[in-house]
Amino acid sequence: MGGEGNGIYWWTNGFWVGVLWQLYHATNQESYRATAEVLEKRFDTALEGFLGLHHDVGFMWLHTAIANYRLTGNETSKRRGLHAATILAGRYNPNGQFLRAWNHDRIGWMIVDSMMNIPILYWAAAELGDPRFTTIAKAHADTCMNTIVRTDGSCNHIISFDPATGEYLDNPGGQGYASGSAWSRGNAWALYGFALSYLHTKDENYLNTAKKIAHYFIANLAQTDWIPLADFRSPKEPIIQDSTAGMIAACGMLEIAKHVPEHEKDLYRTSAINVITACEKAFANWNVDEDSIMSGGTEAYHSGDKARHVPIIYGDYFFVEAVLRLLDKDFLIW
Ligand code: GLY
Q1: Closest C-alpha to ligand 1, atom 2
Q2: CA distances from 204 to 159, 227, 268 (A)
Q3: Does the model's pTM come out above 0.90?
Q4: Which residue's CA is the nearest one to ligand 1's atom 4?
Q5: What is residue 3's predicted lDDT score, i.e. its pLDDT?
Q6: What are the catalytic residues?
Q7: Element (H, E) at 111
Q8: Does ligand 1 have an atom closer than 6 angstroms to the CB of 175?
Q9: Are 232 and 261 in contact (CB under 8 A)?
């Protein structure tokens, strides 16, 4: 479960549990639920330890305790989810109106990945009837829309603000090629994240932003036979791909398709199917004796060979979610 050196705090720990809840929902098979519940308890060490937690608490508890509560009504799970949502709300910087990313000295940093974490705030707001959580989520999404998303639909990964005044300082490079490039997984987080913010708030600006990012994403996919590059603005060589970006974006496109008029749906649905099909053909491993299905994932553009074109758990999670969406058997974990 643990990422290298980060143990129970590692941001990807929830995705396997998310796969189990999706499969439990789709099949009703008890063993999926039982395994997910055992794993959920392990995350209590992270809630108690607290210091290693950061903006990614949404990824961790939406896929574990909150999924459990939504499907089974488990009250202990609900408490865990509310605890995690409160931790995320506590990271809000009112000066710059953003949720701070990571810990240590990055006090004024906001990152695009956070758009997939704020659904935990929308959930807490609905659960408690407390609008403060939505106010924070919307303020953060608006700041993200105004600073992370560029006019052409591409996205920055990181924005740095003065934490005391909220003044915009810089857009440091992150997991993409460089500052000013277009890290495809970051673009996918934004695409799906804004679609989800629309789902939870019905603010049309978020749907339009999700569509704009999707159009940029689709235009780039069409250049590379529907397999995303790890960065859409990187040198032609070496060719570095990232299937995880494709799976996340596909889920986001399928979400957008639910909210647009009939005559617009095809663009998003067909593009989603194209990317899923291309990545399945290129990277899927259906050998049941080996872990993981979807290979072709890249942790970061500058990762060495060990983390480039490899199976990554979130690639599998979003592949499973995308397929279940197409079968109309998915469960909205977000
Ligand atoms: N840090 C989140 C990601 O790698 O996408």
Answers
A1: 113
A2: 24, 29, 17
A3: yes
A4: 299
A5: 46
A6: 56, 113
A7: strand 109-111
A8: yes
A9: no
